[in-house]
């Protein structure tokens, strides 16, 4: 069966973004010296990548 | 050392890229699937793949470093003269002849237009030129983890080259193009992050503008303001000798266009790709300027450290990991394209054409896979030898190509636009042009005109010698019959055979947009800033 290229791409980007968000959240939780203000940009990058992946995987 | 989240993101990236590449293995059943992605690719995948291929680690690190050291004039290598204009020329004048002839590789087209000797020469010259490039690309691909993470370069090289080779081996051009898009998206998002933090660190645009001399922002420099490589003549005329061969006749680039599902998709991919290049390289240029303000001493010592330094000192945890993956993405997307194009030429133009004929399609499919592995091993071994000879990674890449590529472009362009051109003069002209370019750049130009000499003039001289020998020599040979040249030369494709593109895929419209953006940027960074 032919694999939908757009869907495969979208899911891969979603997985990468989810990985980024998860490790950043865990890092913030387990490291007392790290606060949200240190990490907000990483969350933003992860969220943007997730949104791109989600939109690509939709069709 | 990087924090563990960054390491986890980098490792996750490699796993995801391998998985994405390997998932298409089941689609590969023939040479057409392996070398040309089944000719099913839409323009947007081809456009992203073309630009991801063009942006290697040596561009990522090299452009930022060289802009930090000398100013924005180097962006012309990625803007109007060396990217947009050649892409537009390729879309308007070259690509339809390649697609019409149904070839897999440029040397195959050369045999149809000239003869088998020319095909063999093209194939061999392409492999020589690209083996050097592959060595540089693999070397610079290992830089990120060595510089940023501190891992030994052999480990960094083993991981990046291993994953790249694995998905190329399994999925061929389909995997290459799809992973290129993935890598292009990561590069783009990370570039936006990089510039946000870099500009913030220097006090915004006004802080950056006031901290550096005015000529650092100029893309049009006189010889007195710039160097032999950056004054306007070298940039706007000289660099055409690099851009035209790369975008019009290079197998490494055009293989993506050959993989498109239609003529309109291929042409749109080229032109839209050139538009996508402007913001990306502009951001790197600005990051380079910010590095010049923030780390002036380091830039004086080694400007190639600009990008790694910005990443490790300005970005937060998590984004550092993503930015390092973007560096890898740049290297891997160039390396995979080289592997795909070189294995196609080795298989189709040398192995299948001259060495082992009349075997099954599956036999040649596996030959292509074996060549991917051999090239990866050869390129890795070669990597440690090339870089020390040429100094800066970026300049090495350009100068290696310049000796051979422009004479190749000229002989093919004459083949398309001058029906009278024949094989023997073209063969002699090509050899003479490539050798002349090498001799001029190494022994003559720097001695006679050291103030003005740049390697781009050597390739122009080589191209002119190729053109003169081909055109003059062809007058003394028997012309080819018109039937042989149908579809291969300018004016031999019927108007009715040409597709009518939709508005979204009208490459003529996109060409106007690309030119307008390029001219506007050039004027702004010449007259306004």
Structure description:
The complex is a heterodimer of chains A (59) and B (529). With 59 residues, chain A is mainly alpha-helical. Chain A has one domain (5-58). Helix content of chain A is 83%, strand content 0%. Chain A is built from 2 helices and no strands. Chain A is elongated and about 45 Å long. Chain A starts with a helix and ends with a helix. By secondary structure, chain B is mainly alpha-helical. Chain B has a single domain (4-528), classed as Sodium/glucose cotransporter (Up-down Bundle), CATH 1.20.1730. Helix content of chain B is 77%, strand content 0%. Chain B has helices spanning 4-22, 31-36, 43-54, 57-70, 80-101, 106-113, 116-141, 143-149, 153-201, 204-211, 232-238, 240-249, 251-258, 263-294, 296-301, 306-314, 319-355, 361-390, 393-417, 423-448, 455-474, 482-485, 507-528. In chain B, helix 1 (4-22) packs across helix 9 (153-201) and helix 9 (153-201) packs across helix 17 (319-355). The radius of gyration of chain B is 22 Å and the shape is globular. Chains A and B meet through helix 1 and helix 2 of A and helix 1, helix 9 and helix 17 of B.
């Amino acid at each position: 069966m032919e694999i939908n290229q757009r869907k495969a791409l979208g899911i891969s980007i979603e997985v990468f973004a989810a990985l980024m968000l998860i490790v950043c959240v865990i890092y913030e939780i387990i490291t007392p010296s790290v606060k949200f203000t240190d990490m907000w940009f990483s969350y933003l990058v992860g969220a943007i990548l997730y949104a791109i992946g989600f939109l690509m995987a939709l069709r | 050392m990087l924090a563990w989240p960054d390491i986890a993101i980098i490792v996750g990236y490699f796993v995801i890229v391998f998985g994405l590449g390997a998932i298409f293995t089941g689609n590969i059943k023939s040479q057409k699937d392996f070398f040309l992605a089944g000719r099913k690719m839409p323009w947007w995948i081809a456009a992203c793949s073309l630009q991801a291929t063009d942006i290697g680690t040596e561009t990522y690190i090299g452009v930022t470093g060289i802009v930090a050291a000398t100013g924005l004039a180097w962006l012309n290598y990625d803007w109007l003269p060396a990217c947009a204009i050649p892409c537009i020329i390729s879309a308007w004048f070259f690509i339809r002849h390649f697609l019409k002839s149904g070839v897999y590789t440029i040397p195959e087209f050369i045999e149809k237009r000239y003869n088998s000797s020319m095909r063999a020469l093209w194939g061999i010259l392409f492999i020589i030129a690209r083996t050097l490039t592959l060595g540089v690309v693999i070397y610079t691909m290992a830089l990120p983890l060595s510089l940023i993470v501190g891992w030994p370069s052999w480990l960094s090289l083993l991981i990046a080259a291993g994953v790249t080779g694995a998905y190329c081996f399994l999925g061929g051009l389909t995997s290459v193009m799809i992973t290129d898009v993935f890598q292009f998206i990561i590069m783009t998002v990370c570039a936006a992050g990089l510039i946000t933090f870099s500009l913030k660190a220097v006090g915004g645009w006004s802080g950056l503008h006031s901290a550096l001399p005015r000529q650092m922002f100029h893309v049009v420099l006189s010889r007195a303001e710039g160097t032999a490589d950056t004054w306007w003549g070298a940039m706007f005329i000289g660099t055409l000798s690099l851009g035209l061969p790369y975008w019009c006749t290079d197998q490494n680039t055009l293989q993506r266009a050959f993989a498109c599902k239609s003529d309109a998709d291929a042409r749109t991919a080229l032109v839209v790709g050139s538009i996508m290049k402007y913001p990306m390289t502009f951001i790197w240029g600005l990051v380079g300027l910010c590095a010049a303000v923030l780390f002036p001493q380091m830039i004086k010592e080694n400007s190639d450290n600009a990008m790694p330094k910005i990443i490790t000192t300005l970005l937060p945890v998590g984004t550092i990991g993503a930015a390092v993956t973007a560096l890898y993405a740049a290297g891997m997307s160039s390396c995979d394209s080289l592997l795909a194009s070189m294995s196609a030429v080795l298989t189709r133009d040398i192995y299948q054409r001259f060495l082992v004929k009349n075997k099954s399609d599956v036999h040649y499919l596996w030959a292509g896979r074996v060549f991917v592995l051999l090239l990866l091993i050869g390129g890795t071994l070669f990597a440690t030898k090339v870089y020390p000879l040429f100094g800066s990674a970026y300049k090495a890449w350009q100068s290696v190509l310049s000796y051979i590529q422009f004479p190749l472009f000229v002989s093919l362009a004459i083949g398309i636009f001058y029906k009278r051109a024949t094989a023997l003069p073209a063969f002699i002209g090509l050899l003479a042009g490539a050798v002349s370019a090498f001799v001029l750049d190494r022994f003559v130009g720097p001695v006679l005109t050291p103030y003005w000499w740049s390697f781009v003039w050597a390739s122009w001289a080589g191209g002119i010698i190729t053109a003169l020998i081909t055109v003059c020599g062809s007058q003394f040979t028997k012309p080819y019959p018109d039937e042989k040249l149908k579809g291969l030369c300018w004016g031999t494709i019927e108007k009715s055979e040409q597709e009518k593109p939709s508005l979204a895929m009208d490459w003529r419209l996109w060409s106007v947009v690309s030119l307008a953006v390029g001219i506007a940027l050039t004027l702004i960074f010449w007259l306004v800033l």
